[in-house]
Amino acid sequence: MLFGPAADPESLAVLQPTREQIAREDYCVINDADSEHRQEVCYSVGLTEKGLPELIAGMEDFTEFPQGTPSLMHHLVRTLLARGGSYGEGDIFEFHGQWVRLVPETLYKAQCNVSLGLYGPNFSLLQVAPCSPDPTERKNAQPICLN
What is the pTM of this model? Predict the structure, then answer.
């Protein structure tokens, strides 16, 4: 699926549950890892269909959030969609005491297999990074980079 969108029957079958979830809920969240499981990520799929950037976060960045990164991503995507999908680089949000900032992604798109299978390279990503409520202060976060 590295060059998508997928057209072969096997890939289309694998992507069908994701398409169905997007049709029901407007998005889905995928947990994934690089082939050697050096770094695990969580990313949204379906926002591209609304003309919005997809979101990605490292699993290790939100271990203290209740139910971790997948839960935070669901909260964030639902909130952004409820607000009309107006978000972009540098925006800051707070969920249950966890502050996040949307920053330029540092991940090769090849990591986002489901998005690549659905959209090919025609999607953009913003990384969800932990931050403090003070926009001039940044918390340390592992950059997502698999090269």
Answer: 0.84
